[in-house]
């Protein structure tokens, strides 16, 4: 019929089956594009890790535990009461509030 480009004839069953598309070259090209896009995103500094490390700006002077800058005063007081009951708030943290 001349339409062999889109169908292949099965030798046993004598009927037409659609050919599977996408050979190895096509799969490799798609994978390469995906990997390049992923590498570009990683190079752009999209990671939250560095931002989180910078946000850990409060540190207990006694045990050196770091706290995020968004931590409220009550949470810091709870740290002082539970970890350092013999010390005052000023012994543990610089006045920030």
Structure report:
The structure is a single chain. The chain has 97 residues and is mainly alpha-helical. The protein has four helices and four strands. The chain is rod-shaped, with a radius of gyration of 31 Å. The protein starts with 6 loop residues before the first strand and ends in a 5-residue tail after the last helix. The model has no long low-confidence stretch (mean pLDDT 79).
Distance between the termini: 84 Å
Into which percentage range does the β-strand content fall? 5-15%
Morphology: rod-shaped
Into which percent range does the helicity of residues fall?
40-55%
Extract low-pLDDT stretches.
none
Largest sheet: 2 strands, antiparallel
Strand order of the largest sheet: 1-2
- Helices, by number, come to 4
Q: Compute the average pLDDT.
A: 79
List the helices and strands and how they pair.
Blueprint: E1 7-9, E2 16-18, H1 24-43, H2 49-55, E3 58-59, E4 66-67, H3 73-83, H4 89-92
Antiparallel strand pairs: 1-2, 3-4
Features:
mainly alpha, two-stranded antiparallel sheet, two-stranded antiparallel ribbon, 10% strand, 4 helices, 97 residues
């Amino acid at each position: 019929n001349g339409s062999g480009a889109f169908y292949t004839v099965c030798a046993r069953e004598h009927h037409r089956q659609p050919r599977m598309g996408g050979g190895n070259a096509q799969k490799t090209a798609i994978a390469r594009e995906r990997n390049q896009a992923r590498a570009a995103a990683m190079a752009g500094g999209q990671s939250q890790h560095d931002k989180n490390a910078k946000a850990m700006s409060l540190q207990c002077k006694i045990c050196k535990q770091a706290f995020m800058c968004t931590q409220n005063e009550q949470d810091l007081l709870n740290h002082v009461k539970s970890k350092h009951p013999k010390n005052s708030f000023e012994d543990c943290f610089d006045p920030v509030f």
